[in-house]
Amino acid sequence: MGAGQLEYSYSGAAPAPRPTMEGMLWSDPENEPPKELRDTQDMLRRLGVLMALAMVLAMIVIGVR
């Protein structure tokens, strides 16, 4: 095969190696969102629960009338 030609997988070429954890360093930062984003997510989660409870209460009040 000449230079610059590709060998395709159907011709018997081995698949490309997959990335592994071996190249990672222990000092790599954790994949966590910043504190402000975590606080906002917590607030939105609580707001969602409050809205769900308010809807259930509204359905009960409407059903009683």
With helices defined by DSSP (H or I, 4 residues minimum), what is the helix count?
Answer: 1
Give the C-alpha Rg: 28 Å
Query: In which range does the helix fraction lie?
Result: 40-55%
Q: Low-confidence parts, pLDDT < 50 over ≥5 residues?
A: none
Strand proportion, as a percent range, falls in under 5%
Question: Could you write a compact summary of the structure shown?
Answer:
With 65 residues, this protein is mostly helical.
Describe this structure in words.
With 65 residues, the chain is mainly α. The chain has 1 helix and no strands. The longest helix has 30 residues, at 35-64. The radius of gyration is 28 Å and the shape is elongated. It starts with 34 loop residues before the first helix and ends with a helix.
List the helices and strands and how they pair.
Layout: H1 35-64
State the main characteristics.
65 residues; 1 helix; 0% strand; transmembrane; transmembrane helix
